[in-house]
Amino acid sequence: MALSTTQASALVEQVAGEITRIINSGQSENTMIRDFERMMVRYGDMPTIAQSVLGPPARSATASQLSAFAEAFQGYMARKYGRRFREFLGGTVTVTGAQDTGRYIEVLASVTIPGDAPFEVRFRVWDRSGRPLFIDLLIEGVSLVISERSEIGSLLDRNGGSVDATTAALRNLG
Questions:
Q1: Are 54 and 152 in contact (CB under 8 A)?
Q2: Which residues contact 166 (CB under 8 A, 6 or more apart)?
Q3: Cα–Cα distance between 68 and 64 in angstroms, integer?
Q4: Residue among 99, 146, 123, 139 at smallest CA distance from 44
Q5: CB 9 within 8 A of CB 107
Q6: Residue 131 banded pLDDT, cuts 50, 70, 90
C-alpha cells in the first residue's frame, strides 16, 4: 500500500471540512443531501462499500446490477445520513491519530457537538482505486458498513432476494 497515514489523515480532514461547510451553508435540506451525495462519491469508495453492504448476492449480480445498486445505495446513504448531519451544527471534527493496519489506514477522530460529550469516529481509508478514499466509518465502535449490511439484508429478504427489487426499494428509502 502506497497510502501513508499523513495522506489518510488529510483525506479525513477534507471530509470533515466538507461536512462542516455543507451543514453551515444554510441551504435547503434537499440541496444539502445532494451535496452530501457528491461528497460521498468524491471521498468514499462507493462501489466497494455498496458491494460489501450487498453481501453474498453481489457475487452473482451482473455489472449493471452492481452499478445500479451502488447508485441507489449512495442516494439512500446521502438521504439517511445527510438529514442526521444537521445534528453536527456547530460541531468540530479533530483528527487525533492514524494507524496502518496493513489493509487500510484507520484514522481516529474526535467529534465534539455543543451540549454533548465528545465521541470517537474511525475512518477506514485505502487507495486501491488509485486515490485515497474511505471504505468504512466506525462511530463509537459501530461499523457503518456492517450496520447497513444488516439493513440491506433485511431489505433483500423482503424483496425475495432480488437485487433489482432491492435496488428499486432503496431509491425510496432514507
A1: yes
A2: 69, 152, 155, 156, 159
A3: 6
A4: 123
A5: yes
A6: very high
Distances (CA, A) of 173 to 93, 124, 128, 137, 154: 28, 25, 30, 21, 13
Residue (of 69, 74, 83) closest to 33 by Cα position: 83
Q: CA end-to-end span of the chain, whole Å?
A: 35
DSSP codes, 2-40: ---HHHHHHHHHHHHHHHHHHHTT---HHHHHHHHHHHH
Question: Taking 90 as the threshold, does the pLDDT of residue 27 lie above it?
Answer: no
pLDDT surpasses 80 at 160: yes
Q: 170 or 29, which is more confident? A: 170
The pLDDT value recorded for residue 63 is: 96
Cβ contacts of 42 within 8 Å, gap of 6 or more: 18
DSSP state of 44: B
SS3 call for 65: helix
pTM summary value: 0.90
Q: Greatest CA separation found in the chain? A: 47
Please tell me the predicted confidence (pLDDT) of residue 82.
Answer: 82
Query: How far is it, in rounded angstroms, from Cα 151 to Cα 144?
Result: 11
- Are the beta carbons of 144 and 46 closer than 8 angstroms? no
